[in-house]
Every structure is written in C-alpha cells, then in structure tokens.
Amino acid sequence: MNKLLSYFKKGVLEAGCDEAGRGCLAGPVFAAAVILPPDFENDLLDDSKKLTEKQRYELRPLIEKDALAWAVEAVDNNEIDEVNILNASFLAMNRAVQKLTVQPGHLLIDGNRFRPQTNIPFTCMIKGDGRFLSIAAASVLAKTYRDDFMLKIHHEFPVYDWKTNKGYPTAKHRTAIARYGISGYHRKTFRLLNEQLILQF
C-alpha cells in the first residue's frame, strides 16, 4: 500500500478535510475534518474508496482515539437543493472545521476547489485522500458516518435499497424511484431518473 504523507507543511497543525455522498441521489452530504498528531502511523489507512467497509469501520475508532481533534458535519438534501451540491460540500467541510476543538493552522482540502468561511489558510489537493493521512482519515469518518445515516433511513424507505447502495444511483435505486416516486430524502435538483427507465414505466 502507498505510504501516505503525514503533513504538507512541516511544523504546522494541519486539518485534513474530505466529504462523502456528493454523487448520491438521496441523503445528506457529510464532511469530516481531522487533525492527526505528527507521529501518527497506520499502514491500513488510505483513501476510503480503496478500503473495504470492514476496514473503514475498523479504522474509525482508531482515528477518533488518536486524533488531536476531529469533527463530522452534514448538509441535508433540502439545503443541497437550495445551494447546489458543490456549495453544500464546501458548507459541510466548513461546518466540520468550525466544530474542531483545536484550531488548525492550515487546512488540507481534498479536491481542486474550496470556498472557506474561516481565515485559516488552505491548500486544495487533487486526490488528496490517497496522498495525505489526515485527508484519508477525514474520508473514512465522512464515509462511515454517512453510511450509518443511510442505514438508519433505509428502515423508513426499504424500497430504495439504501442499505446496499447508500443513496448512489444504482439501477435498483432508479427503478424504485420510477415505480414508487421520491422520498423526503431525495435531492430534487438531481437527475433522479434516466430516460430508459422513464420509457419502461
């Protein structure tokens, strides 16, 4: 496994930030901010997309125990529809940063764009969750907390199969939308159906 970097700026308290659920048709977008100690090491930690569900849930308590500070925040589907998904992702990350109990000196943001709501300097890192431990840790927290939320609301609306697809646009999810309509958790500004499904029903 690739050796992830401990920091971008040596000697500066850095918070890694990442989000989960941007491409989903339903549910909130979650974001996490994590400040790891400079000597933090974990051979398993990587971009959450490269890990199994079991590995992500094994890592979560370790990250929470060892982090100097961590926070997870969400922006729900109604807010996403109001401000659009890109702005909602920025909003969730800003909320997580503002919730940290330790103020970082620098933010490492996964992706190529960010709109800050604090004066903390930041650097955007394309594919940062596969390059820096703090961003990878944030990706694990954002993903697992979002998965927990989707599993919880699955019981309200089992027809959409959120326990399996977590709100992502699978064929089964789109077929259920075509057949049963949308729930209060769906993002109305997203393309919820594809044309082939509309023709079938």
Structural account:
The chain has 201 residues and is α/β, with parallel strands linked by helices. It folds into two domains: 14-154, Nucleotidyltransferase, domain 5 (2-Layer Sandwich); 158-200, no CATH class. It is built from seven helices and five strands; from the N terminus they run ββαβααββαααα. The chain has a five-stranded mixed beta sheet. The chain is globular, with a radius of gyration of 17 Å. The termini are far apart. The model is unreliable at 196-201 (pLDDT under 50).
What percentage of residues falls in helices of 4 or more residues?
25-40%
**How many strands?**
5
CATH fold call of the largest domain: Nucleotidyltransferase, domain 5
Strand order of the largest sheet: 3-2-1-4-5
As a whole number of angstroms, the C-alpha radius of gyration is: 17 Å
The name of the CATH superfamily of the largest domain reads Ribonuclease H-like superfamily/Ribonuclease H
User: Could you say which overall geometry the principal axes of the C-alpha atoms support?
Assistant: globular
Mean of residue pLDDT values: 94
Number of domains: 2
**If classified by CATH, what would the architecture of the largest domain be?**
2-Layer Sandwich
Range of strand content:
5-15%
